[in-house]
Amino acid sequence: MSAQEVTYEEVAAAAVRMVEGGQPVTVGALHDALGVASLQALHRHLAAWRASQTPAAEASMAIPEAVTTALMSWAQQLAESARSGLRSGLEQADGDLASLLALNEQLEGGQSELRAQLEQLTQVRDQALAKLAERDEQINRLTVELRHARDVATEALVGKAKDQLAIDGKDAQITELRRQLEQNLAASAAQSDARLAIEMELVGATTARDNLASEVKALRAELDAQRI
Known about the structure:
Elements: H1 8-20, H2 27-34, H3 39-60, H4 71-227
Helix pairs in contact: 1-3, 2-3
Coiled coil: 104-145
Keywords: Coiled coil
Pfam family, one: KfrA_N
């Protein structure tokens, strides 16, 4: 039942049942009986119901006009009844106040529990944030280390590539030198063969010349001998 559904008649009926059952009529008791969350509406309807009960109490205590001799006694009884009504009202007010205080303590207890839960959740959140910051720091450090390792690996690969290019260049130079050497050796061999052939030809020509000179000398000797 919501606060908008509470009516004076419902509060009055509940109050009458409590009176008939010998129970004190308080805001807390009405709250428990009706299950209403609005204490302000209950207090307003309860005050109106109590105000409606006062004339009935006074009417029930009215003294007949014929009993004039007991006027003083009636006045005393009326004063005592008024004092009793005031005391009852004060007791009811005290009961209402105690009920409101009890409800307030319950609400404060619930708020304290909620504050404790909030503090616990805040602590858990702070711990999670601290762990997250630590993880971020580790990730940043690992990122820097990974970048450094990548740079070192890149430099090593570049150096290796340069060395390989240098080796390949040297191999090409050696191959070219070997080819040139082979060409030079072949040319030298050809020149040696040509020189040897020329020398052989010169040796042959010299031998032929010497033989021819010997033959000419022999012929001259024969001619000289015939002349004698």
